[in-house]
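Same chain as my last thread, 126 residues:
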Amino acid sequence: MIFCREAVKIMLKKKSGRIINIGTMATKHEVPGEALYTSSKAALIAYSRVLAKETAKAGITVNIVAPSVIETDLSEKIDKEALSEVLKRNAIHGYGIMSDVSNAIDILLKSESNAITGQLIYLGGV
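reply #2:
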């Protein structure tokens, strides 16, 4: 959030910019054992939505991309049973891949996305 605050200072001078924060599907599923992680991401989502309203007139968009479980080294260390339970709740039951996240970000970076701000985009069909 501190980075966003500093980035906005630069973007306000340019009267344009894109901020894309990374959320998580955990804010939708309330996964047991993930209270601190989930609540910190929920705060980021609320911050991003307020920031979107504060900066829209300056041509700055602020959105959140919230992936489901992405296949990474980190996901290999998480309890498989817990991951399976989370994935069952999604429309897409399998792991996502990093390009799913980068593709969503690419769309939000395009000039055609000028009207998209304050949105939380869940990946995986949450």
